[in-house]
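Customer escalation, tier 2.

The customer says the design service returned an amino acid string that "doesn't look like it belongs to this structure." They asked us to rerun it and document both sides in this ticket. The original C-alpha cells are below, unchanged.
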C-alpha cells in the first residue's frame, strides 16, 4: 500500500511526491477546503487544547492549604489523602471539560465565520480574519449588551489581525 509522501514519486517529480490526480488525494483536498470540515476540525482541536489547558489551570488552583471543598467548607488539606485525590480529580475534570467546551466553541465559531467570509469575498487576506474576529467577539459578548459586544468585537479583531500578520510574515532563509 502506498501512502502520500511515502515511497517512489508518482507525480510531483521529487522522491516521496504524490499524484494530485489520485481520487483519494482529491477527496481529502476537497474535504479540507470545506467550511464544514474546517469548522469541525477547529472545534475539535479547540476542545482538545482547551481540555489540556483546563487540566493545567485546575491543577494550579490547589496551591494553598486554605482551599475548601464541599458544603461544610472543610479545608482540603485536613482531609484523608484518598479523599483529597477524589475531590481534586473530580474538580479538575469539571474545570477541564468546561474550558474544553469554551475553547471548542470559540474555535468552531471563528473558523466557520472566517471560512464563510472568505467564500463570500473570494479572497484570502487579513480582512477575513479581522472581520471573523469582530463577529466572533461580538457574538461571545452579546449577553453583556452593545458596549460589551463592541469591546469584544474590537478585542477579537485586533488579536486575530495581530496573529494573522505574524503568520503571514515572510520566513527567514537560513
Amino acid at each position: 500500500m502506498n501512502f502520500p509522501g511515502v515511497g517512489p514519486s508518482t507525480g510531483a517529480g521529487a522522491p516521496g511526491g504524490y499524484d494530485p490526480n489520485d481520487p483519494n488525494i482529491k477527496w481529502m483536498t476537497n474535504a479540507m477546503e470545506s467550511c464544514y470540515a474546517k469548522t469541525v476540525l477547529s472545534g475539535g482541536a479547540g476542545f482538545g487544547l482547551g481540555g489540556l489547558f483546563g487540566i493545567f489551570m485546575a491543577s494550579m488552583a490547589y496551591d494553598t492549604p486554605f482551599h475548601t471543598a464541599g458544603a461544610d467548607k472543610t479545608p482540603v488539606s485536613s482531609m484523608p489523602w484518598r479523599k483529597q485525590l477524589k475531590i481534586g480529580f473530580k474538580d479538575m475534570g469539571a474545570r477541564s471539560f468546561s474550558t474544553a467546551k469554551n475553547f471548542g466553541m470559540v474555535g468552531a465559531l471563528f473558523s466557520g465565520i472566517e471560512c464563510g467570509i472568505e467564500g463570500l469575498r473570494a479572497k484570502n487576506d487579513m480582512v477575513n480574519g479581522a472581520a471573523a474576529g469582530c463577529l466572533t467577539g461580538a457574538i461571545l459578548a452579546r449577553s453583556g449588551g452593545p458596549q460589551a459586544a463592541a469591546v469584544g468585537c474590537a478585542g477579537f479583531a485586533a488579536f486575530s489581525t495581530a496573529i494573522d500578520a505574524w503568520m503571514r510574515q515572510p520566513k527567514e532563509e537560513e
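Tier 2 assessment: The sequence is consistent with the input. The mean pLDDT is 85. The radius of gyration is 23 Å. Sent an explanation to the customer and offered a walkthrough call.
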